């Protein structure tokens, strides 16, 4: 078939030539800004920024260490002069802008027989004034603190983990401690210098190679020394934050940082693709710089906007060029369009123009004719189906109204009992049920869940409810009530349906509860003091499975103020879109929050609201039944 007779070929050729030229330009521009080169550049920038920051902090650390290391002989030579010791610590603080505090802490009993003696000079956090105090006392037992004990035991200088100094400078700090020895090598005290965590945080926060990047500094045990979120400093570790991200890579990064490693890792920061460069400090700390690839590719996004604009202009040119060509080729299609529009307005017997060509236009004409015939046939079938569906929906609505009317709504209004229940079917009709009968000072109650859903379950539910209402009022023990209900359901049960149920009889004078659990969920008991638990019950089969099954009941005595919450598995097995279920743990947690004097209708409504809120709009997958019984 030649191009002149092939409409699709001609049209495709023109579009292909124009699109090929445009896509060639877009491909060349995109290749010039590949993501691989940008990733490498971003890593180099981050590593350079991190190295510079580490060098700055290392410089301060070295200066602090050198200051303390060079003054141990001065302390030893003027040990007996208290005023000189205060002068030394004051000189250290005033002469070194990075040091906010310094102390000479003597071993208990060493200095002139004193239990505590530690001259300490510090700069106030708020006033920025220099203060000198004697730091040791019964409330500040410095010999047991890490900055004193660890360098003493290790017999070498030591940088402490960050801490808040309540008894000294009154601010967050880290302390460099150097053990002091006399000429014979005997330990007699510790000389210290403190650096402010606020200063470290300011220096760390200044590192921002990208708008949303941030830097953090951790100690040897993983705790945060500096972090953009001040609440995490001294309160959390890198591992607690990593666990919140649900990314095992973040945990591995934390391990490598504690091991003193240097490197770069890519990870997911709360769903955002990011990378982290990290490196150690000489005192065992480690610093990390976190950057988001969204920041890295910001320029790429700008370029994409430019490419989009070029593409838009190109499409306009393509549209103008193709429109002139297609207009010459699609004149017959206009007539087909008019016929289709006539059919769209309801005239499905509209005439379809004839064509003389034997290309795709002929196929289009034949397709429209076939569609016209199919639509007319479908309309006739649809009319018949719609009428049937309307009758079926009407019958289901009537069935739902009948089913709901079968369940009792006249809940008892008594001073010694608060009872309320509800059923929410997953479909138009369902298989869940509840019932109660009050005979004098005794209340019989039931919650059940029929196997399956829809109309069969609703019919079986009606039989089960009717059987319980008749048998339950006979005053029999609950095991006999459930057994007779089960035998009634087994009679003629060729579909092998069954119902799980929990039935009980409560004496409102004595509080005696006789109950039987037929394969149902354990009910919740809320004691008068608010403690919630699941009621233990002997295992029994669901009702309707085997005639004559020997059901077992149990008898307990309830205290006044005890609440029973009965439910079906539509509560605990309610699912969100991600298949996570509400579960028994959340149900028990909800029960712990229920106030003892809350009316039963409020309790039922609150639990149903909690379940619907948990599913977050997901379709209900099972019938939900809830009953609250409060023995007041």
Q: Provide a count of the helices.
A: 17
Mean pLDDT: 84
Q: Terminal Cα separation, in Å?
A: 91 Å
The CATH homologous superfamily name of the largest domain equals: PPM-type phosphatase domain
CATH architecture of the largest domain: 4-Layer Sandwich
CATH class descriptor of the largest domain:
Alpha Beta
CATH topology of the largest domain: Phosphatase 2c, domain 1
**What is the 3D form?**
flat
The tally of domains stands at: 5
As a whole number of angstroms, the C-alpha radius of gyration is 41 Å
pLDDT < 50 stretches: none
Largest sheet: 7 strands, antiparallel
Fraction of residues in helices?
40-55%
Q: Report the structural category.
A: alpha+beta
What is the number of beta strands?
Answer: 23
Strand content: 15-25%
How would you characterize the overall build of this protein?
- By secondary structure, the protein is an alpha+beta fold.
- It has five domains: 7-32 and 299-329; 37-58 and 208-296, Beta-Lactamase; 71-198, Beta-Lactamase (2-Layer Sandwich); 330-406, Signal transduction histidine kinase, dimerisation/phosphotransfer (DHp) domain (Helix Hairpins, Orthogonal Bundle); 410-631, PPM-type phosphatase domain (Phosphatase 2c, domain 1, 4-Layer Sandwich).
- 44% of the residues lie in helices and 22% in strands.
- It has 17 helices and 23 strands.
- The strands form four sheets. Strands 1, 2, 3, 4, 5, 6 and 7 form a seven-stranded antiparallel sheet that branches. It has a six-stranded antiparallel sheet with strand order 13-14-23-22-19-20.
- Helix 7 packs antiparallel against helix 8 (248-258) and helix 13 crosses helix 14 (478-490).
- The longest helix is centred in the middle third of the chain and has 47 residues, at 360-406.
- It is flat.
- The mean pLDDT is 84.
